[in-house]
Amino acid sequence: MKIYYWMISEVNEESMFMFSIKPATMTMLKSIVVLAGLFICGCNPSADTDEHLLKNAPEASIYEISGPIMGSSYHIKVVLTPDVQLLEDLRIGVKDALNRVDRLMSTYKPDSEISRFNVSPQNEWFQVSADTFEVIALGQSISSTSEGFYDMTVGPLVNSWGFGPTGKPVKVPDEAQLQAGLVRVGFNFLKLDSKSSAISKTADIYLDLSSIAKGYAVDVVANYLEQQGVENYLVEVGGEIRALGYKPHNESWRLAIESPTVEQRSVFKVVELTNGGLATSGDYRNYYENNGIRYSHTINPFTGKPVQHQLTSVSVVRPTSAEADAMATMFMVMGTERGFQFAVENRIAAYFIFRNGSGFKSKSTLQFEKYLTQ
């Protein structure tokens, strides 16, 4: 599952953004972001506000709302005619929405709904919020369609390999530990009751929503912005994206998929997005080495081990960021050939980067090609 976090930072004067990966720690990402107009950050936006400039601005500009969340960060860009009170209201509303999702779905918080469900008795119904139920229902649907290559119950294995709340293990899990984790993994162990928004487990499963919750948080913020009348925005939370509309002067939101190299960060491909969610999952940042062997954070729920194949990065565009988030992880588990075939058969916009000797090659589905700019 995707336990690492992504950050977004501008890479040129044309507001092109580049994804980069950060390991799963609780240290907040710091980035330098060049902004067009007002910069709103943290809990004191007035410190960076020039009210005279706002009152006399002739046209809409890009404003950013940013801060820490979920062990990572969020950056939301909105295109608005300057309005100090509206920007403050949006800042508060965005922060409240993100904190709500974090309180419900974080495995790092022992009092979250997911954490309380994970320690609840088997074969008993556990009522959850509408948000949590929606995320789990979507994840289960993708699990079913993918025949288990996407599985939110892979949490015990994620924890065993050191990519969960407990951190890196003292030693690589042995076969006995893997088997003990595998018997607790299986999306069919999770039951849903849509009438009562309740879930139940028939085995000692451990739900880990890290591969879908950030994407869902993006969707929650996007929906909130639209409810407030914002028609042009770019929302990023921990690297997951959703965009709508355009920047000033009808310019598309341009984003860069990072080259999957550990040594340096560079642009591999540029995409344009005006309506939809975008997520990228990779194996080249969040990993550790033991006795010369590299272990990625993406765990195969069938073998119980980190994936070992040539696929190194997948980018997915879907109507929602939650879908894109989960499917990017699903494809990383499937690997290049199986993943690409699945994407083609299901008409999913997906872009695959895979190792080829000492370099990389890529291929995309027809649905993704319309987003490519170069």
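The record above closes out task 2.4. Task 2.5 opens with a second protein, given below.
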Amino acid sequence: MAHAHDHSHIHDADDGHAHGVWTRDHVFLAHCHDRAERRARLATIVTALFMGVEIAAGFITGSMALLADGIHMATHVGALGLAALAYWLARRHAGSARFSFGSGKFGDLAAFASALLLGATAIAVAIESVSRLFAPASVAYGDALLVAIVGLGVNIVSAFILKDSHDHQHGHDHAHGGDNNMRAAYVHVLADAATSVAAIVALAGAYWWGLSFLDPLCGLLGAAVIGVWSFGLIRDSALVLLDAECDPDLAKDIRTLIESEMNARVADMHLWQLGPGHQGLIVSLIAKSATDAETIKAALRARYPGLSHVTVEVAICADCP
């Protein structure tokens, strides 16, 4: 059986800034990356300032509740700082040839680490809550209630700082792969706010009505909620880091388009996320007659604007079934 093969290649970058006729850059950063970086940095500073005040007040007043909450807040400062660092690293290495498909995954790496920290926090809170159900500890409910109220205020401020960037990027990038780094930072703040609300309810009940069991019960509830959020972040960011097929429905749609409208069969196809709002596509086709890879690439980019880096290879096989 004779086979005639004609291989054609074309690849492109989303922003279209070409260094030359045959070279393209690979800058696949999130939409409004600079804004997200500024917001993450500001939220880190606000949280860190309150953490410092809280720990200092704990030492001065001798309140373990203040000291413990300040140390707990340090984990969130670390998570927010990690998010800000990831944005900076992604921007700093955006043009580096060392990263074959750009630096857009720095955020997913930070989100994965942040989600692990969030999960570890949930486990620690659950263990401590269970132990306190069976062996209630002495709690300075008045001090702890004050801390929870002030902490909730700080979390609300941080949430508003991050919310604009989170909503803006979610609306722009969701259809093409969201920003897991901003999502991780936002979830950390929301998790802290949720536990603060639960703590306020529990501590108020214990302070005024002596319902001390509410404190560990709310701790268990908060741990469960945080655990669910953590699992979702770990799953989504890990899939991006492992270059899993980012959108099975889109992959199926692309395959159908090629085989029904372009007179070719898909021999091999890879669709993965390059960064927030950016997807890469490598597809190898078999056609019975001459087919221009440039035409196919242009049709794919026109139909699917989220495809930021496209490579098309065409093999001609006149007597293939």
